[in-house]
Structures
1.
Amino acid sequence: MGMPTDDERLLAFAEIALHNGSPGEALDAFARLPGPAARYGEARALEALDRHAEAATRYEALWRAAETGSTERAERGVALVRCHTQYGDLGIAAARGERALADFTDHGHPWHEQAVRLGVTLEGVYGRRGELRRANRLLRRLQAVADELGAPGARGAVFWNYAINAYWLGRPEEACELSRQALALFGETEHHLNIATVRGIHGRMLGRAHPDRWEEALTLLLRAHSELSELNQGYLLIDCETEVADLLVRADEPERALPYVRTALARPQTPATLAMADSRLVLAEALLAVGDRVGCVEEIARATAILDATHGAQRVLLAREWHRTAALHRACGSVDAALHAYRQALLIADHGPSVWS
């Protein structure tokens, strides 16, 4: 076996840098290398730097270049949909996901585990857009495929998304049980990122379904946080830290919540996203709970500016954040602002005239 070439050494260095939390160094190294492996690394580094639009462009090219129906092509499709989703382009995310999934739904290529992952990623976009019936129809089809494949990763992905939908539909106990089953299934795999992510989701669902078990939920979330830190998953860490803070506020531990949510807000991220609005509203709740009404009002204002500028495609999340804003205004005694926020939540949830009219 010969000595590695300069390009092979540089590629190995780039992968190590990316894994160890230095995506800027990794990006520089990948950019100096030829070939699809370097372009894939470049896309992952851009994604880790929260440059989702640029990453999506790279993933699009990689998806087009991959063999139709292959595991590689489905994997690139997952990444492409994920990037557009994180960037807030849900319409484009859905269109790209539908086009990629057509390899298996319309063109007769054999299903495999990565194709199921592509399907549940698309289903997640439908869920974010509030199209829960459409999402569940797709999930039922994917469940049949996953059961036939018998792959625990594929079945776990389906249960994971069923859990999210049950939560949005107001069935927290069902969501908790589904997320528990998803975690058990992923525990049979080597998908470390998925295990960490679903562990955090189960912690969230447990805390929602059983508030008296908040310490158990916190343990799950903190373990997920540790695992995500090792895997250098920036945007997932933001979500996890915000969820830890939210759980601690609801457990009447607001002082413990503040460092987590402030860490989430200090992380590099795309400005003016619903994730940032959510973090700011959790911070507002924590500040109110510790008696800092002025700080609370400032954070509500920052979150409201984001919500006002957010497109209505993210209907479920957007309605939830407006409802949360309304509750905070009410707690601060701002009746008119609370009524406006409640009205926005109802309009976005389709209980009134179009919010864009």
2.
Amino acid sequence: MDDGRPGLRERKKQRTRAAISDAAITLFLEHGFSKVSVAQVADAAEVSKRTLFAYFPTKEDLVLHRLADHETELARVVRAREPGSGPLAAVRDHVLARLRERDPITGLNDRPDVLRLTRMILDSPSLASRMQGFKAGAERALAQALRETADTPDLTARLAAAQIITVQWVLAHDNARRLADGEAADARYAGAVADAEHAFTLLGNGLRDLTPKRPPKRTPNRSPKRSPKR
């Protein structure tokens, strides 16, 4: 009788995938991402390199597959929002909820294992570069969700998605850097919320508040020069 659970074959594949990933993360954190070879990971996980690559096509995937589900997260939020609510408000509420929950994707989680993994990603050029691929995928997914659920024109959807995803990433990166430098998540929380609210206010205002308003400069009155009397 099918009870909705994966079968024996699928469960075995899941265990193998988890074992490879755990072995990789352990080695990377202990020795450094660039100093560990794929062959060493395969040996530690007791699988062949061929098997490893069947589960993880690249070395970077051994680390970043844990973030793959977040690539379409905001698109799913937009699709699942309450009737009558706007896409931006739904995303804002979602981001604030994730900050309250200390979700690692927000950069606001100071568990030692999360901090070490975050620091490794930030300090590795190849991992940071691969993260840009996730960012581009998130923009495409969000733009599609905006087009399909809000009838947003294509260009507007792409521009809006690029701005929303960039805000999410900048906020998360700022939080992660502060925690990597020693700030506690609880101490950072109020500032993280304030930054998020400020960012979404700017988005909601169409970036009208990007440049602070300053009073116009006053130029001193100068009397016109008089020609010398003859």
3.
Amino acid sequence: MSCLKAYPTAQHRPHATGTGGHFALFTFGPHGRVTVEQFAELYRGLVNELDDETPGFFSRPLRGGTLKLLCLSMLDAPNLQVALHRYTQFFRILLDDFGYAFTLEGDLARMALVEHAPLTGSRTLIHELMLKLFHGIASWMIARKIPPILMECAYPQPPHSADYLYFYPGTVRFGQPQTAIYIDRGFLDHPIRQTKRHLGAFLKRAPADWFYVSFADRLLTHRVREHLSRHLLTAGTVHSAADALHMSARTLARHLKREGTHFQAVKDEYRRDVAIQALTCSEKPLVSIAEALSFEDLACFSRAFKTWTGNSPAAYRKARTAGNVR
């Protein structure tokens, strides 16, 4: 996912040394990339440092334990529709400047974000995370991935919008009057499957489980990534991937285009994510990483990585322990 910037305001942002240096990776600017695990680590660090489970988003902090109480209030609901009503009421009671509006529209259920006052920090980021909070908790409650049918965004298309493909497999529209997500109304009758016994593990993994209900397994893009993960060095071309997926290269290109991408973009995204994982979670030499990702040499790898993230591989790795990189 794209790296965070201006998170969330200058007066609220912890220093890189404030929580053991965990924030160093998150100062790369608009092209920076982080893994889900790194984002979750950052988020937990901010929550602990600020004692705010929506760190700096709103005029009133949500103190530690707020989201636990939210989930507890939903667990004994007879079905998802009642649970979601409680969800909206919970935020209506707690916050003055933000809330949710839940409505039924024919065969669809709609959950919209409502701003009662200007938000602090990155409005796009807050909208993304608060919508995923709803979506993740709703999916967890009934123990099923709820596929969004439509997502409307009350902001311009962001540079990282290609990542929406994995989390919102339906239609996504930008520049709308209100940010909202639409799901099949049939899910509202599903009973709540989780119990208090399951809640501890869910909260311990936060925010990964509720922010990242991924639908990558539904996509041809994901199947291409799986192929590359096994055969990048020996069969990493579009023709090899098409053969492995039992289709022509033209058919593969057509299906990927429908998903809003193309083969080279999928390959670059895969190599970028593997590179970030290797740089942050291992001491593997840069030359070895370049070779494993099928680059001709270290210089080619460095150029590509700087294009992807805005920084060289060496600078990215150094930032883990040495502070900010601009």
